[in-house]
Amino acid sequence: MKITACEVDSATKWPSAELLVTNRSSKASNYIVQVEFVDASHRRLSEAYATTNGLAPGRQSRLTAQGLDQITAEITSRITDVSRFAS
What we know:
This protein is mostly beta strands. The chain is built from no helices and 6 strands. The two termini are 18 Å apart. The model has no long low-confidence stretch (mean pLDDT 97).
């Protein structure tokens, strides 16, 4: 699980994070990933979720966690929670 990109859309001002999810388990799995967007002083500005279902063992999925709060500051993102459930 890793963040591959983080940005604020210039038109909507919404934050987003691109994620790469790898199923390292032996069964097809569903994932729910929570991401937070923070400013330079680590103050939380927004959060977002991304999901994928039925990800086969050893496979990867690229996801987008899209926030809906308008942000004008420079941001970074970090994964705050991951839930995995067998499909």
